[in-house]
Amino acid sequence: MGRFAATLVGSLFGLGLLLCGLGRLASAEPRAPPEKIAIVGAGIGGTSSAYYLRKKFGKDVKIDVFEREEIGGRLATLKVQGHDYEAGGSVIHPLNLHMKRFVKELAPSSVLAGLSSVPASGGLVGVYNGKSLVFEESSWFIINVIKLVWRYGFQSLRMHMWVEDLLDKFMRIYRYQSHDYAFSSVEKLMYAIGGDDYVRLLNQTLRENLKKAGFSETFLNEMIAPVMKVNFGQSTDLNAFVGAVSMTAADSNLWAVEGGNKVVCSGLLQASNSNLISGSVMSIEKTRTKQTGTPPKMYEVVYKTGSEIHSDFYDIVLVAAPLNRKMSNITFRNFDPPIEEFNDPYQQLVTTLIKGELNSTLFSSRHKDQFGLSAILVTDDSDMFINSLSIVASVSHKEGPPPAVDGMHVWKTFSKDILTKEQISKLFLSYDYAVRKPWLSYPYYNPPQKCPSIILHDRLYYLNGIEFAASCMEMSAIAGYNAALLAYHRWNGNEDMIDQDDLYEKLKTEL
Ligand SMILES: Cc1cc2nc3c(=O)[nH]c(=O)nc-3n(C[C@H](O)[C@H](O)[C@H](O)COP(=O)(O)OP(=O)(O)OC[C@H]3O[C@@H](n4cnc5c(N)ncnc54)[C@H](O)[C@@H]3O)c2cc1C
Ligand SMILES: *[C@@H]1O[C@H](CO)[C@@H](O)[C@H](O)[C@H]1NC(C)=O
Ligand SMILES: *[C@@H]1O[C@H](CO)[C@@H](O)[C@H](O)[C@H]1NC(C)=O
Ligand SMILES: *[C@@H]1O[C@H](CO)[C@@H](O)[C@H](O)[C@H]1NC(C)=O
């Protein structure tokens, strides 16, 4: 209630700022724009950078976006009996202003049909410890409050305030970006948002941070760890910032894009008037060979389409895919000093969609007609082979999951390994259909951990280091915008727009 109003005011305020920001796009006298820019990866990071690069550099620059699989990357759907369901990034927070803005701005182009709320966030949640449900949400708000206070004192309220405070500061990034300010590293971006305290969130585990703040072991194990597990496949050993991001996914009013979140990526690609190249980038090389035409381009991108190998020259290159051998597998050549090998580990995670009737007696002795939970989270010591289990609605369903036919629902599970038939049969009394998608999903968080650099070379930028602060759609969009601004300001020598101190104070008076 109060929360909803606050959210609404916050969003209107944010959008207002974005609009104001657009008014002053052309400040300094820019030099001639670059001729060609390459972006590797057509996920939300790559496509949002294409969108902002076009806004900054204007209509003449040629933007090539390389994608070796599908547009959307980790935003993808799976089909169950003719309906599409989100298999990767699925929920968006009401204060994710970039995602919100994309949908709003792209909607008229008819690529995007509109929004739909994510009904899963409205369903009742239970937490299972391997023997019984240690927490079970009720449809009565007041009962939930009593249960929470009874079991954990006022810790859930304090937790809520802890997250709110961090989120409140986080909103500053939108103001900085709408005024065109860029950051040359993730740490500097985090510092601009909330000073040393904010940078320190990356250096501490969530557990350390919350224990210091006086949260109890029981609360951490029963309430916080299960939320970390469903959102980031890890326990409270991840960094405190991604922990806070993960907690916001427990807020209300979460939403998703009708037709699938990935349509935002195709929309951005189209709006940016970029050229999509379906191919796999193998290497990025600092050019040594003499080129015809002036001025010479700095980088050569070598890529494969089918079995053919091609290459092309670019003034600026953005890498918008995780840099490691198992994922993007890009080699950097002729750089002096050499560009470091990235070996940051990403977690293996499997999404499985199952249409079936849950064996609810596995979790509760209650009769199945009275079970009523639509999401089950698990504690660390539950010894379960899944990280979570929840009823999901298809991407084109505005009203939420359809009523169950014979107790059948489409359930989504995340697990570390591929589920065996036996495991699925253990969870379900019966099932019609199962489909899965394995991912290298998000970083394995191991604080203290340095975020990979954004500037790899003069005009070579890397977006996905931001995932080591937190991996989600909005963070990739922020990284995409930041990289576009950084590339633009560095091209034009606008040093005064990069890594500025005291931005918050400076912009306070400018409003
Ligand atoms: C199971 C799961 C659930 C998630 N849930 C949520 C959620 O609810 N909410 C949320 O906000 N976030 C969620 N996330 C995280 C979110 O999906 C990601 O943070 C975000 O989509 C990352 O976008 P990106 O553009 O940075 O990277 P990606 O989407 O990975 O895009 C990189 C692209 O680059 C391409 N590529 C890689 N190498 C090359 C190459 N050499 N040549 C050409 N192309 C290449 C890839 O094919 C890919 O399409 C989830 C992720 C997963 C896996
Ligand atoms: C965080 O840790 C890094 C080293 O991992 C250190 O350089 C930095 O000063 C730390 N920052 C804060 C704010 O504690
Ligand atoms: C990475 O690319 C090289 C060729 O560029 C190839 O030989 C190797 O098998 C690839 N590695 C993976 C894990 O795909
Ligand atoms: C459902 O799970 C319970 C508890 O594990 C088990 O005893 C029962 O046999 C299962 N029912 C079916 C039909 O598999």
Automatic annotation (TrEMBL):
Signal sequence, start to end: 1-28
InterPro entries registered for this protein in UniProt: FAD/NAD-bd_sf, Prenylcys_lyase, Prenylcysteine_Oxase1
Keyword Manganese: no
Matches recorded under Pfam families: NAD_binding_8, Prenylcys_lyase
Class in the EC hierarchy, top level: oxidoreductase
Prenylcysteine lyase domain boundaries: 135-500
E.C. number(s) listed in UniProt: 1.8.3.5
Key words of the record: FAD, Flavoprotein, Glycoprotein, Lysosome, Oxidoreductase, Signal
Alphabetical list of Gene3D superfamilies matching this protein: FAD/NAD(P)-binding domain (3.50.50.60)
Cofactor: FAD
Superkingdom assignment: Eukaryota
GO molecular function: FAD binding; prenylcysteine oxidase activity
Location(s) in or outside the cell: Lysosome
Main location: other
Catalytic activity: an S-polyprenyl-L-cysteine + O2 + H2O = a polyprenal + L-cysteine + H2O2; S-(2E,6E)-farnesyl-L-cysteine + O2 + H2O = (2E,6E)-farnesal + L-cysteine + H2O2; [(2E,6E,10E)-geranylgeranyl]-L-cysteine + O2 + H2O = (2E,6E,10E)-geranylgeranial + L-cysteine + H2O2
Role of this protein: Prenylcysteine oxidase that cleaves the thioether bond of prenyl-L-cysteines, such as farnesylcysteine and geranylgeranylcysteine. Only active against free prenylcysteines and not prenylcysteine residues within prenylated proteins or peptides. Involved in the final step in the degradation of prenylated proteins, by degrading prenylcysteines after the protein has been degraded.
Family: Belongs to the prenylcysteine oxidase family.
Listed name of the protein: Prenylcysteine oxidase 1
Organism this protein belongs to: Rattus norvegicus (Rat)
Gene expressing this chain: Pcyox1
